[in-house]
Structures are given as structure tokens and as C-alpha cells.
Q: What sequence folds into this?
């Protein structure tokens, strides 16, 4: 068994059969309207994932989502809409966020850079809706730029973004691994079953019993110490690939348990040993 622990997001989706590049019109419009270039890492991924049901409930906006349509946009456009909505009806007792927005409204757009940087907003936390992910406009020329996070809160200003991922590729891998692990939603499972993949049974393993946990994972050829544990909305997620059996192993680590499942194109008994017969 040859287990691979360091696949990129692009390698994973291509292995899953998403390998036909097709740039949709909204992606072209995004570049033309805002006079920007898109990072190579983002462009390569999105050309395969635009409108994909696989990521329909993810933190990345891919166009068609489970709840409607979400297309990336510039942060300045959002701020301008917020200002227009408040014209002549600013709050008498503004919050920190409203005050910073009002201050921005008092200067020409050409000078906004003095108050807040512009970002290409590429996603939001799907489950909670409490913030957005973005790439600084000035970083869009980079091949694999950092990704920042801005939380919706009356207690922060419009300029308060924090670094969330050192590389865009790390953000994309997190988004994909969380979707594949089906932590909160089954969108990825539904999408992959339509492409001929099978999600095998899920196993909940008590993380507190590390001897049993590592023994179970070892039966499947998984070395826990080599797993890349990625941040998720709650806990951690992981994804590794058995290139001999053409099977992915995915799961999440939270609330004292590890959930493990396999994504493969063959019968379950050829991937998993009998779980009840495993000796710890």
C-alpha cells in the first residue's frame, strides 16, 4: 500500500475526475470589470470547480451554491453599496464599524486606500455567515498569495482583516478536505456518487484511546503522525490517498472522536477490513 499524504487540492480534484477546464463567463467578467489578474493557483482551481456541486456548501464561492449563487467581488464594491444604503440615514450612535464606514464615505474613492485596503472576496464561512475570506488586491499578481479573514462585527473597523492562510493553496486544500469529509453537509458525497465514486461506511473512533485509534488506522495503512491535520469550522479534517487501490481516506477530528471513511470505486470489503473483527 502506498499512502500519499501531501496531495494538493488540484491533484485531488483531478484524481476525482474533475479535469476538464472551462472558464465560465462570470470568471471572465470578474477580471474585466475590475481590471485585475487572478492568481495562477486560484485560476487553475476555479477553472475546474466553477459551479461544481462538490463545493456547493463550502467556504469557497464557486458560483452555484446550495443556497443560491455566490460570485467573488471586490471589497470596495461591497463597501460602496453599504455607504449608498446609508445615505442620509447614518446612525446617531454609530458602532465602530459604522463610524469607519462613515469616515470612508467622506473621501473620494481614489483615496480609500488611506482608510482600508481593497480585497478580492472569494468566500465566506458557509455554516455561520460571520465573515469573509479575501486576497489583497495588491497580491493578486502573485501565483499563490496569502488569504485574509474579515469578521462581520460592530466591534471592528472596515480595515481589520487578519492573515488566515499563508498561501491560497492551503486555503483551497482546507476547503476541499472539509467538503470531502462531509463534516456538516453531504454535498461532496452526492456529487462524487454521480461520478461513480462510493463513500464507504463511517467509523467513529474514540480519540482518547490512542492505542486503539492508531491500531485502527494502521489496519487501513494510515500513519496518524503523517496525516496533515487541516483546520475546519470545528476541529480538524484530513485527507490521504492510497494510490494502489485508488481510494481516498477522509475524516475529521473533533469532540474526542475521529470519523473515518473511504472514497473509492470498488466494493467496501476490498478497502476496509471487517471493523468488528479488528483487534486493538
A:
Amino acid at each position: 500500500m502506498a499512502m500519499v499524504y501531501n496531495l494538493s487540492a488540484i491533484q485531488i480534484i483531478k484524481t476525482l475526475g474533475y479535469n476538464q477546464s472551462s472558464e465560465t463567463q462570470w470568471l471572465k467578467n470578474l477580471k474585466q470589470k475590475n481590471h485585475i489578474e487572478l492568481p495562477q493557483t486560484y485560476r487553475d482551481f476555479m477553472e475546474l470547480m466553477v459551479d461544481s456541486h462538490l463545493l456547493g456548501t463550502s467556504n469557497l464561492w464557486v458560483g452555484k451554491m446550495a443556497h443560491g449563487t455566490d460570485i467573488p467581488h471586490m471589497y470596495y464594491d461591497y463597501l460602496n453599496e453599504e455607504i449608498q444604503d446609508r445615505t442620509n440615514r447614518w446612525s446617531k450612535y454609530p458602532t465602530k464599524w459604522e463610524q469607519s464606514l462613515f469616515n470612508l464615505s467622506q473621501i473620494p474613492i481614489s483615496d480609500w486606500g488611506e482608510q482600508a485596503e481593497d480585497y478580492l472576496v472569494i468566500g465566506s464561512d458557509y455554516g455561520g455567515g460571520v465573515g469573509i475570506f479575501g486576497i489583497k488586491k495588491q497580491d493578486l499578481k502573485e501565483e499563490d498569495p496569502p488569504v485574509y479573514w474579515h469578521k462581520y462585527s460592530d466591534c471592528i473597523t472596515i480595515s481589520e482583516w487578519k492573515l488566515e492562510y499563508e498561501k491560497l493553496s492551503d486555503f483551497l486544500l482546507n476547503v476541499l478536505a472539509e467538503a470531502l469529509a462531509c463534516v456538516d453537509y453531504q454535498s461532496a458525497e452526492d456529487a462524487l456518487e454521480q461520478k461513480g465514486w462510493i463513500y464507504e461506511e463511517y467509523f467513529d473512533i474514540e480519540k482518547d484511546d490512542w492505542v486503539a485509534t492508531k491500531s485502527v488506522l494502521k489496519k487501513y495503512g494510515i500513519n496518524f503522525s503523517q496525516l496533515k491535520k487541516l483546520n475546519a469550522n470545528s476541529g480538524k479534517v484530513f485527507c490521504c490517498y492510497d494510490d494502489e487501490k485508488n481510494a481516498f481516506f477522509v475524516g475529521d477530528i473533533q469532540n474526542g472522536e475521529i470519523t473515518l471513511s473511504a472514497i473509492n470505486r470498488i466494493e467496501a470489503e476490498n478497502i476496509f477490513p471487517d471493523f468488528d473483527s479488528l483487534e486493538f
Observations:
- The radius of gyration is 21 Å.
- The longest strand covers residues 247-254.
- Confidence is low (pLDDT under 50) at residues 275-280.
